[in-house]
Amino acid sequence: MARQKLLVANWKMHFVRAQASEYLKVFTERVRGVHKTELVLAPPFTLLETVGRALEGTAIRLAAQDLFYEREGAFTGEISPIMLKDLGCSYVIVGHSERRRLLGETDELINKKLKAARDAGLVPILCVGETLEERRAGKTQRVLEAQVRGALAGVHPHPQPLSPSRERGAGVRGPHLVIAYEPVWAIGTGINAEPEEAEASALFIRELLAQLWNAETATTVRILYGGSVKPANFEGFLRHPNIDGALVGGASLDPEAFAQLAQMAERV
Ligand code: PGA
Fold it and tell me: Which of 118, 174, 183, 230 is deepest in the core (most CB within 10 A)?
């Protein structure tokens, strides 16, 4: 089965409502001809409703950048998977390296969040990746293996039925998981991984999924590359068979640049 290309814009902590609306006007216009590639926007929580409304009637899906693992309760400041579903989210980013590093998120916590997302019918976009130190010490695969095993402990593949609906928040094709390989040293630095290295890591992750689950499921999971993706370097990643798209930070803040990435994915 051919995997559909996927591009996710991680806006991180950027934009207020007026900026988001300006962005969407330009972006939705520019990607009008994009049909084969799945496009996802991950704005901050405060913009989910605004962006979700603007995306109504389009095939562009909504993602949150994080979630809490309980459905409701006394958890001041946290946001539950139910709340995200209510706003029309289809996806949620889990285990981003900025949260691992700045907020001390562990594989155990990420595992809880990933399970909670799947239980609520949200597709987690699990981020994994090595630091520069780990890479220099030749530990990349060891780190990826620990992060994937940790995040997926006790998680079973339950392939979703094919959904005829393209509505916001509707079920997504394939197993309930996307993995983003994001080497920490490449995030926001302007220094991207070599596409060959990213392909090797994506293949390693896919083979690990085949071991943990089964080969058939592993071939249906989409694996993205993330880390300083921009129009000037994206082509190289798209040529590789195990890279199914990208998780984009900086370049996704420019609607023209992000639309250009979408058009490049569409041409592959
Ligand atoms: P970047 O961020 O494209 O700015 O490197 C990627 C990410 O953090 O998801």
Answer: 183
Tens digits of per-residue pLDDT, 221-267? 999 999 999 999 999 999 999 999 999 999 999 999 999 999 999 99
Domains, the chain, in order of start with CATH, read 6-267 (3.20.20.70)
Q: Check pocket membership of 54 for ligand 1, CB cut-off 6 A.
A: no
Q: What is the C-alpha separation between 149 and 142, in angstroms, rounded?
A: 11
Given the residues 96, 98, 105, 176, the one annotated as active site:
96
Q: Give the residue whose CA is nearest to atom 2 of ligand 1.
A: 249
